[in-house]
Amino acid sequence: MKNTIRIERAILNITQADLAERIKVSRQTINAIESNKYIPSTVLALKIAREFNKSVEDIFELDESD
Amino acid sequence: MKNTIRIERAILNITQADLAERIKVSRQTINAIESNKYIPSTVLALKIAREFNKSVEDIFELDESD
DNA sequence: TCAAAATGTAAAATAAACTTTACTTTTAGT
DNA sequence: ACTAAAAGTAAAGTTTATTTTACATTTTGA
C-alpha cells in the first residue's frame, strides 16, 4: 500500500512531528507509515485523512501486494 | 470506532463467511471487526469498503473514544 | 559555514490485529 | 419442531503496529 502523506504535509507545510502531535501518535509512527514500514490502523488512517481534508482513499492506495 | 459492515452485508445479502472469502481473511476476523472487538488495518478497511462500493468514511466512523 | 530543525533509523518492549481450531448459540426455512 | 446455515465466542499462538529512548544523518536558514 502506498500513501501521499509526505505530499500532503508539504502542501500544509507541517513537519512529521506536527502531524504526529495533531493526531496524537509518536513522530516515529508517522515516519514509519510515511516510509511504508507498516500499515496504520483504520483509526489512524481516518485521522490522517481528516487532517488533510481528504478521504482515506485519496491518501492511501492499495497495490498488488495487498 | 463504529462501522456499518452488517448493514452493507445485508444490502448485498452476503454472509460473514462470504465477505471473509472475498477479501481473504478469516470469518472470525470479519466477525470481530463487525462486533467492534478490534480495529482493522487500513488495507482491510480499503478492501471492505471496495467490496461495498463505498468509501472508507462511509463504512467506518470515528467516535469520541478514538 | 554553523547551528538548529527535521528526518532517518534501530532496538527493545508492549499492545493489538489476525489466524486457527473448535465449540455453542441463534436464525431461517421446511 | 427439526435441521442446516449463520453467527457468536474463546483460547492459544503468530505477526504486526506502536511507543519509547536514543543516536545519526540530512536539510534549511541566517
UniProtKB/TrEMBL annotation, chains A, B:
Q: Which SUPFAM superfamilies match?
A: lambda repressor-like DNA-binding domains
Q: Where is the HTH cro/C1-type domain?
A: 5-59
Alphabetized, the UniProt keywords read:
DNA-binding
What protein does this entry describe?
A: Helix-turn-helix transcriptional regulator
